[in-house]
């Protein structure tokens, strides 16, 4: 069994219920993999250490530093954006459906998966109505994302969607022998309407963002709506993916924002910041072989740039050596580091690694909050109250090393303050991790599983 086969087993476990005996078998297999592939793990750690400049004590403000660092990596920033935070599934889909209903030209959707459930049916109903009005509707989804969720779209569902006039394509369908299907997936979540309004964040199309699930209870995640020149950047990302999935080259001025926002799309949740329309935003887009290190680069440098505070929520906290080192160094120079993780999770093994890392960082001086009221799938970081990010990238190897990901980096104190307030509110449903609480909460066997899982972080 090679490491790709091992990874296949782990991915399959994401969406299936497995017995205690099966988990033990998987644990044994992964132990065997660590014995067989130590060189690979060490090589990955060594290569990562060369990605970032040698750390120096920051002398500029964190927001200025991160902008300059990302610009050197080719990231473009514009200054004329509005960013509206959509912090619940209900907010996201209500806002999205209102915008779709007022579209006049084109609707483009790119998701890791469209789960075959009630919210997807509602989305298709809105899209089909716009097709009848002459609006171009294009959608692309990831083959692995579709196959790995517990209610995938089948060929008959896709046929029915296409019969309504909606163009929909699958990126990298799962095909035997499946070995090529594991890496470089499309994990982004983007919608662009008329080339003038865009949505991005961590939510796929699924009703559990509203209703929760039996396994984890309520499901917390977030999206944001962007209006301004960064809509054009998101449109470029979509059109490149559309070409890869469909073979069609789509271009033309009508797909891009002009000099103003559309005044005909009304009734959406407003951006209430005084900086609305003047926010500085850049899009960091991970493309294999093109910008493969950009998400890692952003997170490590954002943490290294911090002078006062870091607040972070992420569901799959497996972390790389560089990220752990950056967080430890931040604490050493007096930065208040707060991290919020979920007690519950939708997948096995990976959370154990996250809990282990959280305990280690707690001992180093980070404040760890363990969220108990459902599952937090949110992926955000706020630094010094100056800048933040909302996007699709997790802090695991899959997001940082392999998949196509995209995050909006928002250089704006008001939006960052809104996310800070969200973080503070979520702490009320959490317990603070201490050494005493750690031993009460995690059994000896669970603590061992966490230690073992952290050895596998390059595969998780």
TrEMBL record:
Annotated EC: 2.7.8.-
GO biological process: cardiolipin biosynthetic process
Name of the top EC class for this enzyme: transferase
Keywords: Cell membrane, Membrane, Repeat, Transferase, Transmembrane, Transmembrane helix
Residues of the PLD phosphodiesterase domain: 182-209, 372-399
GO MF term list: cardiolipin synthase activity
CDD domains in alphabetical order: PLDc_CLS_1, PLDc_CLS_2
Keyword 4Fe-4S among record annotations: no
Compartment(s) where it occurs, according to its Swiss-Prot or TrEMBL record: Cell membrane
GO cellular component, one term: plasma membrane
PANTHER family found in the cross-reference section: CARDIOLIPIN SYNTHASE, PHOSPHOLIPASE D
Protein name from the UniProt record: Cardiolipin synthase
Annotated source species: Prevotella scopos JCM 17725
